[in-house]
Amino acid sequence: MSHKHSDKDEPARIDRREMVKMTAGALIAGPQLNRKKNEPVPHKFFTNEEFVLLDELSEIIIPTDDHSKGARAAKCASYIDKTIAESPHPEDKQKWREGLSLIESISKEMFGRKFMKATAQERISLLERISAQEANPVKPEEKFFSMLKSSIAHAYYTSRI
């Protein structure tokens, strides 16, 4: 409850709502002040290269189509990045790093170049290869695909989209 005081009694007070608005505004604006126009947003866990790879894998698994926006628009990679960064289990972080590295190794083996340098059809064929045993994954890349797909689906279906 607010009490009115004369200006002589004490300095002006800011009510709680106004303080929350100002604080929220500062939190939102603060980090933006130091960022340059085209500077990439820092990720919480993944390197830029890993994040770009994860974002592309996400969009291939849940692409934008005539009916809905895809995983990229739903910011699935950002959600996964945040989730992994906050995980208290080092093995979770290791599984993601190893899995993304495995994707790069398979791409080099199949196409002679990194995944992001491969053509769209080559990228799809790599995912078809590692998802072929989806019902019963055995190889490390098959297990990673299962974890990847599950994480992307969770991120997508809990997003605003």
Question: Any overview of this molecule?
Answer:
This protein is mostly helical and 161 residues long. The chain is 59% helix and 0% strand. It has helices at 16-33, 48-61, 76-86, 90-111, 120-131, 140-157. α4 crosses α6. It is globular and about 35 Å long. Mean pLDDT is 83; it is low at 19-35.
What tags apply to this protein structure?
about 160 residues; mainly alpha; 6 helices
List the helices and strands and how they pair.
Elements: H1 16-33, H2 48-61, H3 76-86, H4 90-111, H5 120-131, H6 140-157
In sequence order, what are the helices and strands, one letter per element? HHHHHH
- Stretches where pLDDT is under 50 for at least 5 consecutive residues are 19-35
Q: Classify the beta-strand content into a percent band.
A: under 5%
User: Which whole number gives the mean pLDDT?
Assistant: 83
Instruction: Give the structural class.
Output: mainly alpha
Task: Count every helix, treating DSSP H or I runs of 4 or more residues as helices.
Answer: 6
C-alpha end-to-end distance: 40 Å
Overall geometric form: globular
Brief account:
The protein has 161 residues and is mainly alpha-helical. The chain has helices at 16-33, 48-61, 76-86, 90-111, 120-131, 140-157. 59% of the residues lie in helices and 0% in strands.
